[in-house]
Amino acid sequence: MRIIQYIIIIMMLVSMLAGCTINPVTGKNEFMMFSEQQEISFGKEADPDVRWQFGGAYDDSQLQNYVNSVGQKVAAVSDRSNIPYHFAIVDSSDINAFALPGGYVYI
Predict the structure, then answer these.
(1) Residues in a beta bridge with 102
(2) Which residues, listed in sequence order, are joined to residue 31 by a DSSP beta bridge?
């Protein structure tokens, strides 16, 4: 019975170590639950619902383009510049900014 417990513990430890990756900001190994592709997929899937929940895109293409331009410049020099970023202004009276996994940023 003890041997089975030890085998289970060892298998759990091995699986946790396999999920570790280096955090680009801290340079330390950290456990990652999702791959980068999964993270991007989660954001892409949630994007339409978030836009709907916050009133859709704000109706000012010039302002949207400006925010996207500034956001893309910041994203290009970030530690995660390899993922595609999407910046949008939502039509909400709340003063806030937030993001979804995978590079979806809302103002």
Answers:
(1) none
(2) 20
